[in-house]
């Protein structure tokens, strides 16, 4: 696969150069927006255009299930640095329907880990549901992420945090939390509203 990637990259670079698309672009978000979403492949080249953003407009973070796990500060760290050093003023937590992290069970995960050589001792040493960030309700997961971002002492209080859910097929967005309404934990918009 590496050889194919490098062959494609060589052609891609030449094409960008020929089209004049290889010009300098700022590493800072032009729209002062950050999106935190899931790493699901169906969302690649879907989330940003569905929201009206193009290359260079926003910062984007991804992880499995767009979850912010307990005692795992990486997402908060990135959002905080984006706000403090790069001027991010709004964060969109964008979950999606039909998320694999909502379908996966602890037993299935345990079996998959064992089949890939992860030892039973290592698996027993963690709470798999928390470690993996398994989700039981996609909308509730979005709300929890919004609350954790909003309530973090590392996030400036003027940063607005929204929660949306996307259909990975139609790209339709629904508002779960409208951060413009003040305290996000009390302003949940019902699905389909």
UniProtKB/TrEMBL annotation:
Keywords: Metal-binding, Zinc. It is an enzyme of class 4 (lyase). It catalyses: hydrogencarbonate + H(+) = CO2 + H2O. It holds the Pfam family Pro_CA. Its cofactor is Zn(2+). This is carbonic anhydrase. It comes from Geosporobacter subterraneus DSM 17957. GO terms for molecular function: carbonate dehydratase activity; zinc ion binding. SUPFAM superfamilies: beta-carbonic anhydrase, cab. Its EC number is 4.2.1.1. SMART domains: Pro_CA (SM00947). Belongs to the beta-class carbonic anhydrase family. Zn(2+) binds at residues 38, 40, 96, 99. The lineage of its organism: Bacteria, Bacillati, Bacillota, Clostridia, Peptostreptococcales.
């Amino acid at each position: 696969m590496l050889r194919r990637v490098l062959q494609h990259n060589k052609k891609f670079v030449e094409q960008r150069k020929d089209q004049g698309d290889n010009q300098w672009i700022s590493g800072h978000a032009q729209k002062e927006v950050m999106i935190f979403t899931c790493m699901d492949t169906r969302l690649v080249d879907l989330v940003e255009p569905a929201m009206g953003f193009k290359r260079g407009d926003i910062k984007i973070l991804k992880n499995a299930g767009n979850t912010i796990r307990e005692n795992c500060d990486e997402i908060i760290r990135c959002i905080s640095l984006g706000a403090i050093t790069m001027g991010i003023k709004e964060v969109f937590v964008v979950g999606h329907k039909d998320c694999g992290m909502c379908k996966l069970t602890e037993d299935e995960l345990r079996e998959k880990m064992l089949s890939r050589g992860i030892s039973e001792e290592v698996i027993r040493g963690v709470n798999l549901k928390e470690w993996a960030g398994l989700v039981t309700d996609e909308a509730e997961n979005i709300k929890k992420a919004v609350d954790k971002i909003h309530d973090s002492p590392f996030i400036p209080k003027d940063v607005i945090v929204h929660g949306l859910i996307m259909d990975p097929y139609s790209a339709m967005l629904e508002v779960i939390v409208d951060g413009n309404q003040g305290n996000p934990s009390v302003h949940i918009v019902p699905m389909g509203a």
